[in-house]
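Allow me, if you will, to draw on your knowledge of protein folds for a short while. The matter concerns a single protein, recorded as an amino acid sequence and a row of backbone structure tokens. Kindly check, if you would, that the fold set down in the tokens agrees with what the sequence suggests. You will find the record immediately after this paragraph.
***
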Amino acid sequence: MAYNVNPFLERRSERTTSDQEFALVFSPKILEKLSGEAFKGGVHVFRSAPGGGKTTILRAFTPSVLRSFWRGKGANELKESFPLFVEKGVLDELEGPQLLGVLISCASGYADLPPGAAIDEGPFRALLDCRVVLRTLRSLGAFLGLGADESLDTIGLEYDQVAQDLQGIPKLTSAGALAEWAETQEKRIYAELDAFSGRNTQALPSSGRFESVLWLQSVRFIRDGVAVGGNRLLMIDDLHRLRRKQRELLIDELTIQRPQIPVWLAMRTVVLEESLLSQGARTGRDIQEYSLEELWGGLKGGHQFVPFALNVLDRRMNRQVAVTGNFSQRLREQLEPEEIRKFIRPGIDAFRAATLPYEKTARYSEWIARAERKSADQTVDTLLELFVTRILMARDAGKKQMSFDMALPAEEIDDKDSSALRGAAEIQCHEELKLPYYYGLERLCTMATCNVEELLSMAAALYDGIVASQVLRKRSPELSPADQERILSDAAARRLKFVPKQHMEGTRAQKLIISIGGYCRERTFLPNAPYAPGVTGVRLSQTEMEKLQSKVLGEHGTLLKRVLSECVAENLLVLRPSAASTGRDAGSIFYLNRTLCANFGLPLQLGGWQDVTCLDLIDWMLRGWKPRQRLAIGS
């Protein structure tokens, strides 16, 4: 068994060294969220930001990986995974894989085809068809457990009535012969592309429709007189790598075909473009869409991501020997009493300074007296109590009052207290007192924004801190909240720093993100916390979204649309719909990625947002946002 120096640095599933290694680190929790509808015939689109787990899910259903799960079914690491695969009907405890999963990627080759409606569609279909055929036959070998020296010639092919209409794929009766045809067809296409500038485009192989799905659902594989591999799944990854017209063509034609086998299409989240649906197709019947982030419950269900994340982290932790115990055991979840004490006096002083104008006002006398009594307890709750009281005083003072003579009862603080208000008090304590906020497993998972790659990126930094702490023989084997926050804040700063290097519109995207972050900070840290626990996003109303989709904003509007699309696709911004209400129309909210919230010192909850216009965002994207003067407590 190989062990890694830092097991969290190996992030992308396609880079995992072997199928066995993949099986050992694969978290089965995602299978629990995968609906049985996904295994029924039809087109199923899986979306997520990079690192959301699309390729991981697809690879898990390839024959070689399924065989690894089956062979290692007695291993302790697979005791959760194996029964779930059996339950899905893709593994049999005695006979092994029951699903012929065919995985192809659109990462290379297709976009190299010459653009233009007249010459692009036919070669694109032909290339995809021959690749599906070739990958199917190779996957069949893995499905049957054929050795490297065993030939596909031992497998016969038979066709049902539907296959008689195939024009581009030959109806050969030998799997070996058909594989040879597919290899030759692919080489021929690339040979023509290599010599494209001096050749007639008509020489490129072409097809009038996508036939590979029809072929896959109609062909029968015969070995020793027995039909094998009857349960099939076609998986097409990296759909976003295709040109937009290629992607639309593929989805449109596959949807119209209404395949009898499940066809999984995986792509990065794409927004502000034309609909995925073909003409007349309906979501839920002709095409199913799955957002991997929303599989964890959307806005209200992020806590469901925690057990999955913990499972992922512990499986990685098992791949190293430098540190003992589970990952969560190395992250201290609470501040120690001696750590809290150094924040109490500054917290009391901050409260007294903010409430000094009201010290002799009868209206707040009981509130201030209660706060003074609470100050004797040196706990985090004491600090939160002081800051909650301060926020409530700022809110009350901001109202138009007829008289300040009547004292407000202390019990009214409890009546007005809420989780949102406590959240605002907590982030204000972090801002003013530097009380640690970004620490603990649950907040680590929240910062990951339901994205596995972001989770592993931060876990890798924490793991290095854990190892360093162990080497230095610190008193506690756990990382303190302050150490966790320092490490995670550094990781968040790096995330933002490298945006220009990692994204097409990175420089403008970075400026827009910094502007949104600054604007959210200004609205979050108002003394009366009007948007408790804080503002972490901006909203474009439906009217503004229509402007963005049209041409009325000119070149700058087109640029903003492209930047916003990339920010959402690359998980820098999280897009959520906003329903209409009595006072406003519907719209779209662009929340900051939760890791970036840590960079700006913002709360991690989703919820608080502010309306802006497209012109605001264009100005921020091009020139940056300028802060306004901070308001005083009573203003």
Notes: The chain has 24 helices and 14 strands. The CA atoms of residues 242 and 340 lie 54 Å apart. Residues 274-280, 631-635 have pLDDT under 50 and may be disordered.
